[in-house]
Amino acid sequence: MKIATIGTGSIVDAILSAINELEDVKVTAMYSRKRETAQELAGKYGVSTIYTDLESLLSDQNVDLVYIASPNSMHYEQAYQALQHGKHVVCEKPFTSTLQEAETLIALAKEKNLLLFEAISNIHLPNIKIIEEQLPKLGAIKLIQCNYSQYSRKYNDLLAGQTPNVFNPEFSGGALMDINIYNLHLVMSLFGSPNTVSYTANQHANGIDTSGVVVLKYPEFIAECVGAKDTNGMNFVLIQGEKGYLQVVGGANGCREIKLQIGKEPSEEYSAQNKANWLYYEWEVFRDIYLAKNYKRCYELLQHSRSVMNVLAEARKNAGIIFAADADK
């Protein structure tokens, strides 16, 4: 599987490090608007070709799959172009800015018989399987609490009067799309789509959410998802049932350790993850699906991503958060 990357941020560095550990995967090209921006990263990982023209990269016959890690608002257009050029695509989270964009990409991928993935790492972690296996021990689920809060250095820029991409409605930024999305993916991968969605957010003067609380109402339980880029917090997931509770230590992003408490029995601890770079696991999944040409599994994952995009759209609407991309739909 020969990969080209779009973007040169820290997430691309981490992804390239993970890919380096995988067999049958090679990064053959990188795209950046300025060559010098990509040179250090390309040199670090031995990537031979740097493009400053996107059309040239998408026309490269030595590229099977394009990994997109550009600002959120650019995901749709770049993924659309890559699919039109017959390339498989892995698009960084959030998948797109709007539900309609997601549906258009999914339809195009199926029409062209191409693989399309959202790069949301936590749903592919081995510890997710442990959670699934332990859930029945909890009895009837009643409450879920998630907190993923991480003070952003870009928040200081926002307070200073600047508008970094991650806090810009023009670039589809905000805490919901950037950080609370991990909570939503985890909860929905375990329990599916909720009946109702509400979002109460702390919003900057430009309308973007810097932190907030999403409440997902299911028939038998309530899930509360907190995401913040303006404060730090104690990151965790807590799933409470009538017979006990399950804690995801460190929160939904890395799912580093699982603790199970049933009644007054001794607590149990689990972890099936031995990779320091947990991004390895999602790329192992993408590689295996690619090599097996397992379109059925790919499209199951796409349906999940579509469902999460639908919840994100409902949450934004509920909080009155409007992106520039909304005007085009």
Automatic annotation (TrEMBL):
Start and end residues of each GFO/IDH/MocA-like oxidoreductase domain: 137-246
Pfam families cross-referenced by the UniProt entry: GFO_IDH_MocA, GFO_IDH_MocA_C3
InterPro entries the record matches: Gfo/Idh/MocA-like_OxRdtase_N (IPR000683), GFO_IDH_MocA-like_dom (IPR055170), NAD(P)-bd_dom_sf (IPR036291)
Domain Gfo/Idh/MocA-like oxidoreductase N-terminal: start-end pairs: 2-117
Residue intervals passing through the bilayer: none
Entries under SUPFAM superfamilies matching the protein: Glyceraldehyde-3-phosphate dehydrogenase-like, C-terminal domain, NAD(P)-binding Rossmann-fold domains
Alphabetized PANTHER family for the sequence: PTHR43054, SCYLLO-INOSITOL 2-DEHYDROGENASE (NADP(+)) IOLU
Protein name as it appears in the record: Gfo/Idh/MocA family oxidoreductase
